[in-house]
Write a structure and sequence with these properties.
The termini are far apart. This protein is α/β, with parallel strands linked by helices. The protein has 7 helices and 10 strands. β5, α4 (126-136) and β6 (142-144) form a beta-alpha-beta unit. The longest helix is centred in the middle third of the chain and has 17 residues, at 96-112. It has helices at 17-26, 71-81, 96-112, 126-136, 152-161, 187-192, 241-252; strands spanning 8-12, 49-58, 63-64, 85-90, 115-119, 142-144, 165-171, 206-212, 222-230, 233-240. Strands 1, 2, 3, 4, 5 and 6 form a 6-stranded mixed sheet that branches.
């Protein structure tokens, strides 16, 4: 199938590892693509062309919703992926009807750009999948779940082995020790997870920011910042190291001038 004939898609972009891996999989470079357990139509045997990422930004904080990631970092991810980033701004708090209206407007924009598929990194929560399917049904945009049904323990190991790098940006302290906030998502982190915690955190046990991997042309340099507890969750701030260095050079002035 030629590029011109491939259905165009947006990918729901949380900034985390699952969204990043879904982008990798729909690009056709992952063994996961051939080991799904019965994805429903449109199946991933259908080649699609991802033409954009869709993210929600909590406007008062200028951060990705729930993950707490700074806007400049998610913009750096989009640049590294070579894709435009479409931002949906939502208030805090955000009533469900406000969120759904904002997403409906985003889907109208997607349709105007020829998008007919929406890719999600969901793994096994049936209620979440059903919600997405129900909300997209009136638009004619078809949801695609390339990671659906994957063994999450094996998937987490596959991500790490393939070079995906991520940090934990948010965790639920009722389920994980607070000191795991800010940690790299690596084998040591997986080994430290308490029994009953999903290795991919599909139940919201923790959230991540993906900073490197086969879905990016170059890594996004980050530095681990402050950790705080807010609204029942523990958040670790990640700072864009490249942006910080650029600002520092600006304060020093052009090279060779003092």
């Amino acid at each position: 199938m030629t590029n011109a004939a491939r259905p165009k898609a947006w990918l729901a972009w949380s900034s985390g590892k699952d969204a990043a891996w879904a982008l990798h999989v729909v690009g056709g470079r992952s063994p996961s693509r051939g080991s799904r357990r019965g994805d429903t139509p449109p199946t991933m045997t259908e080649e699609i062309e991802v033409i954009g990422l869709l993210t929600t930004i909590t406007a008062p904080y200028d951060r990705v919703s729930m993950h707490g990631v700074r806007r400049e970092l998610v913009e750096a991810q989009a640049r590294a992926a070579g894709l435009p980033l479409h931002k949906v701004l939502i208030p805090a708090p955000c009533p469900n009807e406000v969120y759904e209206a904002a997403m409906a407007e985003a889907m109208a924009t997607a349709q105007s750009l020829g998008v007919s598929r929406m890719v999600f990194g969901d793994l096994f929560l049936e209620d979440v999948r059903r919600y997405r399917e129900e909300k997209l049904a009136p638009t004619g945009i078809q949801p695609v779940f390339p990671l659906w049904g994957a063994d999450t323990r094996a998937l987490a190991r596959e991500m790490i082995a393939a070079g995906l790098r991520a940090h934990v940006t948010c965790l639920d302290p009722r389920k994980l020790p607070r000191e795991l906030a800010g940690r790299p998502f690596d084998q040591a982190f997986l080994d430290a997870l308490p029994d009953g915690v999903d290795p991919c955190a599909e139940r919201g046990e923790f959230h991540t920011f993906a900073s490197a991997g086969p879905m990016f042309a170059q890594p996004i340099p980050v530095r681990v910042g402050e950790t705080v507890e807010r609204e029942g969750f523990v958040f670790t701030d990640l700072l864009h190291e490249a942006a910080r260095q650029t600002r520092a050079r600006g304060r020093r002035g052009p090279p060779g001038r003092r």
